[in-house]
Amino acid sequence: MYLEIVTPEKVLLSAEVVSVTVPGVEGEFQMLNNHEPIVSVLEEGDVKIEGSFTIEEDVQNQFTKQADNKYHLHIKGGVLEMKNNKAVILAD
């Protein structure tokens, strides 16, 4: 699936990923390829991303590498939309 993570300042990530786990207001949940359409408010927490992708050099310091092909990005909140195998996170 395709993932975009956007902040008011810039696009942090725009890449094909295997999965993304987000901190929803009713708990953490994961999305994989062909997930049903969803819109969700996100709480403060870590967005967990798995996949083989390149993070732009100017934003690498915002991501924490957990293991091979696994990264975390801490957000203060935001909104997620998943539709047509594309997830867009508008993060604070």
TrEMBL record:
<feature type="domain" description="ATP synthase F1 complex delta/epsilon subunit N-terminal">
    <location>
        <begin position="1"/>
        <end position="92"/>
    </location>
</feature>
<dbReference type="InterPro" id="IPR036771">
    <property type="entry name" value="ATPsynth_dsu/esu_N"/>
</dbReference>
<keyword id="KW-0406">Ion transport</keyword>
<comment type="function">
    <text>Produces ATP from ADP in the presence of a proton gradient across the membrane.</text>
</comment>
<comment type="similarity">
    <text>Belongs to the ATPase epsilon chain family.</text>
</comment>
<protein>
    <submittedName>
        <fullName>F-type H+-transporting ATPase subunit epsilon</fullName>
    </submittedName>
</protein>
<keyword id="KW-0139">CF(1)</keyword>
<keyword id="KW-0472">Membrane</keyword>
<dbReference type="Pfam" id="PF02823">
    <property type="entry name" value="ATP-synt_DE_N"/>
</dbReference>
<dbReference type="InterPro" id="IPR020546">
    <property type="entry name" value="ATP_synth_F1_dsu/esu_N"/>
</dbReference>
<keyword id="KW-0066">ATP synthesis</keyword>
<dbReference type="InterPro" id="IPR001469">
    <property type="entry name" value="ATP_synth_F1_dsu/esu"/>
</dbReference>
<keyword id="KW-0813">Transport</keyword>
